[in-house]
Sequence to fold (680 residues):
Amino acid sequence: MATIYEVSKLAGVSLATVSRVMNNNANVSDATRKKVTAAMDELGYRPNSIAQSLASNCSNSVGLLVSELQGPFYGPMMSGIENTFRNQGKHLIIAAGHSDEEREKQGIEFLISRNCDGLILHVEAVSDDYLIKLSKGRTPFVLINRYISELSDRCILLNNIKGGYLAAKHVLEQGHKDIAYISGPLWKRDAKDRLEGHKQALAEFNLEFDENLLFQGDFMEASGYEGLKSLHQQTHPFTALICANDEMAVGAMASARDLGLTLPKQLSIMGYDNVFFTRHVYPQLSTVNYPIDEMGRMAADWVLNHVYQKQTPPLQTLFEPELIVRHSISRQSAQITSQG
Amino acid sequence: MATIYEVSKLAGVSLATVSRVMNNNANVSDATRKKVTAAMDELGYRPNSIAQSLASNCSNSVGLLVSELQGPFYGPMMSGIENTFRNQGKHLIIAAGHSDEEREKQGIEFLISRNCDGLILHVEAVSDDYLIKLSKGRTPFVLINRYISELSDRCILLNNIKGGYLAAKHVLEQGHKDIAYISGPLWKRDAKDRLEGHKQALAEFNLEFDENLLFQGDFMEASGYEGLKSLHQQTHPFTALICANDEMAVGAMASARDLGLTLPKQLSIMGYDNVFFTRHVYPQLSTVNYPIDEMGRMAADWVLNHVYQKQTPPLQTLFEPELIVRHSISRQSAQITSQG
DNA sequence: ACATTAAATGTAAGCGCTTACATTTATAAC
DNA sequence: GTTATAAATGTAAGCGCTTACATTTAATGT
Fold:
């Protein structure tokens, strides 16, 4: 591999000049610039990015921590982020935190030790305090889907209260009055917010939230399955089920089939997130759109702006959900009676 | 940030000694090793990985190029790879090639310019020649889902002929005789192989492959939709449809519904890949398992072995597909008649 | 006690760049 | 033709490590 030294010799200039043309420094005459680029071409020179990083104290890499590399939710987010950065010559180092405190911390440590210039974090298990302390460190970061008031300018969020509200309102407007709810883990902010929006809509329709119709899941498919099974066994009847995300909704659909319920006639089911497979399930799932790809791109812009001082479109931290109506909500007709 | 120099001063030893304890060099007495680690702790020292890379000429990073960061296929693959590498302190730089020749080349260039020690490539558009030339370069790489005879020892493959065979055989065993087929782009090796296996099974059942029942798709959902629509319009009747991947199968399912066909009674549909949403569609899709996660891990092991000289479990390049029977194939009964 | 050898530690060069500062060269003003 | 000023280029010191080689110290045999 040719080095800058060989280029400088071939071009008959100093190291510094070669470095200047590489970095588009203005103070280089056209003549020498041409000599240098010619020499580079001749030698097939490629700058050594490691050496550049060491000398300039900038690794041009940004770390991304997500819970999982797989699954319908993170894909679009990573995709938007990668795209933004590659166009800027930055690279993306990706790690997975698996929603586990220890592994999330390790992941962050790992990315920092890799000299990332900035971090994009989608973390769930790590504490607010930890993140606040982290924010005092040398590596700037932005949070996706997490709100910490002390760090509010770097939290990129969905308005989950509104989303919960939209979902419930839609179901209510279809005439449902007895609505069960499978939430996420309620210590998680997003799960709590979605439920709060849900309750707001109920209140608007002068309905009380029935705690018996609440099942706390964990955002994973299996808990949707278990959730409906459990709700179905208790005595309060319901005609619709709202799930705090699509995965649980799909689990609930499977459960409904096992219980012999016809969808959506005997039970309406609503999801949340609008992951791509919601179009593929049958009946197609009505849900709430979570513009995770846009939010990913926004996080990337945040880094470009705050870490690399690039011009970006104006930064936005709060995103709005949107109702997606498909075919999983029926107009209220029959009522499930519990079997208890 | 503390540097090795400060550690050495605090511990009262030389730079080299500090470096030695970092790298677990054997020739360090226990006493000094303790002094040094104590100093490190006291200073909160973290090695600068960029400097390490420059000095050791090893970046400890491996590049991964996939077609898309999203989608059900690549997620599990990335996940397996990330896991393997993180446990070894290597990091993963991910880029997307979008099945486009220019972008794939750019992606590879990008990863190489980032001083990756090795590459894992899932490329589709780039030519064999390009890859053969690339193999002469300084950065070793392994290919997933691509066969080039000159590079056969670094091609990690699924036995697609077998997979195509298994799918067809299962459908034939259920009594179907008129079987339509939506293939991938036939210039792609995997698409061709799957079709070849399909034909083998047909031959085994003394059936001829009917070219009228072949539609060439592009592995994407929309082409599955179009494919079935088109096949349905021609004159040859068929009772089953085999698709060369799950995405197209799902597209075909939507198409079938739009055509008013009851699944699987009036039309049996078979997929390929066993991506996770095949369980969620209705009826649940019978398919062929593609152990992409294992193959990803194997690719990671290949890199560990060939690039970092690590001990790994024995390397395997050919993986076997497996039939997954769900509910989308009926025992042969009614026949669709074409509308032509 | 002394030579012989192995183990532990230190010295210093170098990895391929960037960049502050010094120097040279061109340009303009009088 | 000087001198002042700006533009272009060069010099050399790092960035924070690794590692070949040199040196010192400890262990062993006699």
